[in-house]
Amino acid sequence: MTAATQATTSTAAAAPPAVTIRDLTIVYRTPAGELPAVSGVDLDLPPGTITGLVGESGSGKSTLALSLLGAVQRPGRIAAGSIHVDGLGNLVELSAKSLQEARGGEIGYVFQAAQNSLNPLKTVGKQLLDLGRSHGVRDRTALVRSAKELLAGMGLDAARVLDSYQHELSGGMRQRVGIMFALVLNAHVLVLDEPTTALDMISQANVLKIVRAVHTERGLTTLLVTHDIGVVAEVAERIAVMYGGVVVEQGETADVLRAPKHPYARALINAIPRVSGDLSAARPLPGRPPTLGTIPTRGCVFRERCAVYAERQLPACVAEQPPLAPVADGSGRLVACHAVAVEDQQATGETA
Ligand SMILES: Nc1ncnc2c1ncn2[C@@H]1O[C@H](COP(=O)(O)OP(=O)(O)OP(=O)(O)O)[C@@H](O)[C@H]1O
């Protein structure tokens, strides 16, 4: 057992919680009325797993992540659906006070650009005490000990870091401080939004290694939001692909990266040489992702950029958004695509 786990033996022994999101719709008020940034999303974070949530800019990843913290802010609101976290219940129904306690307490988060989110006027140690105070922590000594053990477990000189101001730390060190803040109150659900963006390659690799190690040692259930599929390939056992506010494919990372089924997931993965493995085979995805005002309100959200629709023109693609449904191969993969459903039906019919 490492120093990081010793501090939290009693809570670390608890089973990691499952997170179950069902039919979640989150809207933002705009001059054109309330528009959905997340539409009827189903997403499972199995206990003890890291799930990578990927998609182009504007696909709704951060909005979905914020909902897990009960932190969707005006002009946004959760319009429908549920977010169940073991031990906490349905976050959508919790009071503001319970949510505030859960945030940072049960559910830790590291925001996009966490490298710059520290208060420049206070040392890390002072900010730690502020965090403890805001969550009613009485035992300050234990809090500092736990922070030191986390920092040391991530390879940092803990005493020095607690005495430092933001500008005295490198980007990779600040990111590790962000992870310490997310976990020091013994959270068991960890939400990381673009944890390695803006870091150089070496710091990126180090932070990912640390994320993986801390996740395993502390028995966490982790959601990692990123636009970088390479990051997911490195640390996440599961992947969910978002497009236009909808999860279009969900499954084991290795399976999905090897043989993506949704035309968007395929295009996204084929666009990345690092993942597809062959520079000459990498194909950029033509067109642009939709914005709130341009997400199709009828039919499949991906239809306008879909190579399969361009070729086959299935009427169902125009009529309705396909549900996220299990594919027939029994792998547990979920895909929201009419063409995949038709192919599955044909294949099942042939073998029947
Ligand atoms: N406060 C807001 N008010 C209005 N629209 C918003 C607000 N925040 C986000 N949006 C819109 O909601 C949609 C989803 O945004 P979100 O930030 O969740 O996507 P994302 O996939 O995380 O993108 P990125 O990778 O760029 O952060 C986008 O069209 C965005 O413009």
UniProtKB/TrEMBL annotation:
Any Pfam family hit: oligo_HPY
Protein keywords: ATP-binding, Cell membrane, Membrane, Nucleotide-binding, Transport
One GO MF term: ATP binding
Biological process terms in GO annotation: peptide transport
Domain ABC transporter, chain residue ranges per copy: 21-269
Membrane topology of the entry: Peripheral membrane protein
Subcellular location: Cell membrane
Record keyword Membrane present: yes
PROSITE patterns referenced in this protein's UniProt entry, alphabetically: ABC_TRANSPORTER_2
InterPro entries reported in the protein's UniProt record: AAA+_ATPase, ABC_Ni/Peptide_Import, ABC_transporter-like_ATP-bd, Oligopep_ABC_C, P-loop_NTPase
Gene Ontology CC entries for this record: plasma membrane
Xref: NCBIfam families: oligo_HPY (TIGR01727)
Similarity remark: Belongs to the ABC transporter superfamily.
PANTHER family in the record: DIPEPTIDE TRANSPORT ATP-BINDING PROTEIN DPPD (PTHR43297:SF2), OLIGOPEPTIDE TRANSPORT ATP-BINDING PROTEIN APPD (PTHR43297)
Name of this chain's protein: ABC transporter ATP-binding protein
Organism from which the protein derives: Rugosimonospora africana
Lineage: Bacteria, Bacillati, Actinomycetota, Actinomycetes, Micromonosporales
